[in-house]
């Protein structure tokens, strides 16, 4: 069956004091799409130590075999993340996408560790494509400590409908100035400080939804998926950013994937903050 929402990237193990959980952009993105009423599918690469059927129940998954699974250790201090990467699974290229999935109308590219070939941005010319670019912005040292790296974006940004990154993904915001001129829509999330959005030659701001943060892991990935879903339906950038911000606000309230909301929950929270219009500032 052809999915209507395709996510591509690694499903990583996120280490915890009690073992590990499976996460990543494709996990949170696919689950968010499903809870918003779509039929998602996943292209990923994991090792034999991981079983995905419990994490992605009822979601078709195409696995690129790898001897190991990408593994992260995430720590948070005052809302800011420090990451260590312990293992990296295999690369994902255009030939790894099943032919019957190439016509998926919505595509979310979610690299975590430089694993998604940039050419995938041009593989879906008839689709609406959103790239969560965090994985192209990462490098790591011999101890696995993750830091931001230089990235031109020229092989990805001109070919996607929106590119999304967070305050945790870059150390120097000067890079935004170059990326905004290549991307149709550039979305920069800043946690509780809200979201800066550049499109049609201008920056705009959308406020975050004030909630009590329990676990920020996956919030940006839920944001990306929700933005893609709403934009496909409305073609309204700021309305879609507000919808995505609301969806992400549920995610941070609960540890793991349990907080990913349904469409009904998102729409109810939006309505409760006023007339439902996004809080925008030029």
Can I get a quick summary?
Helix content is 21%, strand content 27%. The protein is an alpha/beta fold and 282 residues long.
List strands and helices in order, with pairings.
Layout: E1 5-8, E2 13-16, E3 19-22, H1 25-35, E4 40-46, E5 61-65, E6 71-77, E7 80-87, E8 106-109, E9 128-132, E10 138-140, E11 146-148, E12 162-166, H2 175-182, E13 185-189, E14 195-199, E15 202-206, H3 219-234, H4 237-251, H5 263-272, E16 280-281
Helix pairs in contact: 1-3, 3-4, 4-5
Q: Would you write up a description of this structure?
A:
- By secondary structure, the chain is an alpha/beta fold.
- The protein has one domain: Ribokinase (UDP-N-acetylmuramoyl-L-alanine:D-glutamate ligase, 3-Layer(aba) Sandwich), CATH 3.40.1190.20.
- The chain contains five helices and 16 strands.
- Strands 5-4-1-8-9-12-13-14-15-16 form a ten-stranded mixed β-sheet, with helices on both faces.
- The chain is globular, with a radius of gyration of 17 Å.
- The termini are far apart.
- Mean pLDDT is 92; it is low at 275-282.
């Amino acid at each position: 069956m052809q999915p209507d929402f395709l996510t591509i990237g690694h499903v990583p193990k996120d280490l915890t004091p009690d073992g590990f959980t499976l996460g990543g952009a494709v996990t949170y993105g696919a689950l968010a799409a499903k809870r918003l009423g779509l039929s998602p599918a996943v292209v990923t690469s994991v090792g034999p130590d991981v079983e995905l059927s419990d994490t992605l129940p009822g979601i078709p998954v195409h696995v690129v075999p790898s001897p190991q699974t990408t593994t992260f250790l995430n720590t948070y201090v005052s809302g800011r993340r420090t990451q260590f990467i312990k293992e990296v699974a295999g690369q994902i290229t255009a030939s790894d996408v099943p032919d019957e999935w190439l016509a998926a109308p919505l595509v979310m590219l979610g690299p975590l560790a430089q694993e998604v070939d940039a050419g995938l941005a041009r593989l879906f010319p008839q689709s609406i494509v959103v790239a969560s670019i965090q994985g192209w912005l990462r490098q790591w040292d011999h101890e696995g400590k993750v830091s931001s790296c230089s990235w031109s974006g020229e092989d990805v940004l001109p070919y996607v409908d929106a590119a999304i990154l967070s305050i945790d993904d870059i150390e120097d915001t000067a890079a935004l100035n170059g990326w905004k001129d290549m991307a149709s829509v550039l979305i920069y999330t800043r946690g509780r400080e809200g979201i800066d959005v550049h499109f049609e030659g201008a920056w705009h701001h959308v406020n975050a939804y004030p909630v009590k943060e329990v676990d920020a892991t996956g919030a940006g990935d839920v944001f990306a998926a929700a933005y893609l879903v709403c934009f496909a339906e409305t073609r309204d950038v700021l309305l879609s950013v507000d919808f995505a911000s609301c969806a992400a606000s549920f995610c941070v309230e609960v540890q793991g994937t349990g907080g990913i909301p349904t469409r009904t929950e998102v729409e109810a929270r939006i309505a409760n903050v006023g007339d439902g219009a996004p809080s925008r500032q030029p």
